[in-house]
Write a structure and sequence with these properties.
The protein has 1 helix and 9 strands; from the N terminus they run H-E-E-E-E-E-E-E-E-E. By secondary structure, it is of the alpha/beta class. The strands form 2 sheets. A 5-stranded mixed β-sheet has the order 1-4-9-8-6, covered by helices on one side. The radius of gyration is 23 Å and the shape is elongated.
Length: 132
């Protein structure tokens, strides 16, 4: 008889632990999304309205820009080393390695937020906000 009582207690304990883990994960994901949205709102507010980005000193300048749908953005490499512009999620945004004074252009045809980076130097990051 004692085994019959022990088993349900173990199952209840395991079930309670699983519920706690799932609830904790849900709270973490929810707060993470909220922070991302808040971060995007702040970045959009601070974004520079331009269609030209200069690559110099191992960074994109400005690193956060805002453009209207249909705008062609041009990146120009002013560094003495090669850099690129590669979309974090947008596969079409994938420029070649740019030598000094070379450019790469891309036309944004959909509203959205587009992160990008330099393939050889992944710490170099930028964002393009495309609005109506």
């Amino acid at each position: 008889m004692q085994k019959a009582h022990t088993m349900p207690k173990k199952l209840i304990t395991i079930f309670a632990a699983v519920v706690v883990i799932i609830c904790g994960a849900a709270v973490y994901i929810s707060s993470s999304r909220s922070n991302d949205m808040s971060s995007n709102t702040t970045m959009l507010k601070d974004a520079v309205e331009t269609n030209r980005v200069e690559i110099s000193n191992f960074s994109y300048s400005p690193s956060v820009i805002r453009v209207k749908v249909g705008t062609k953005v041009t990146w120009t490499n002013k560094d003495t080393v090669q850099h690129s512009v590669v979309g974090d999620k947008l596969a079409d945004l994938s420029g070649p390695l740019l030598s000094t004074d070379k450019t790469y252009s891309f036309t944004f045809d959909k509203v959205g937020t587009y992160g990008y980076h330099c393939a050889p130097h992944p710490h170099m990051k930028g964002t393009v906000f495309v609005t109506k």
